[in-house]
Structure prediction request, 125 residues.
Amino acid sequence: METTIAEYAPMTFPLLAVNLGAVERIPPGEGREFDVDGELVTVFRARDGQLYAVQAKCPHRQGALADGIIGAGKVVCPMHSFKFDLATGAALGNDCAALKTYVVSVNDDGEMLLNTNAVRGASAT
Prediction:
């Protein structure tokens, strides 16, 4: 039996990478919040130049993590001082849920690329 193309259900594939613009949009040691297809993501630029991308709100009380303090690969929530590892999303010293983390890179033009298909962390679905 032959199957025609019309018999297959249409498939959609999510965008793999979203261009967030120039890395200079984020000063070293700070974070910025981005709306990526209706989901808020915060990208941090560590003082050593490393980029981290995590869900924008703390799972504890929805504090804006972009307003938190970063250092040594960690972010401190500005609302209740809960700490999280930026690379893994793991909660540090508290029983809060882990952060959803994303893969972020910089292309040859100095633009940040957020890989929306590469979600990491305990709360990734």
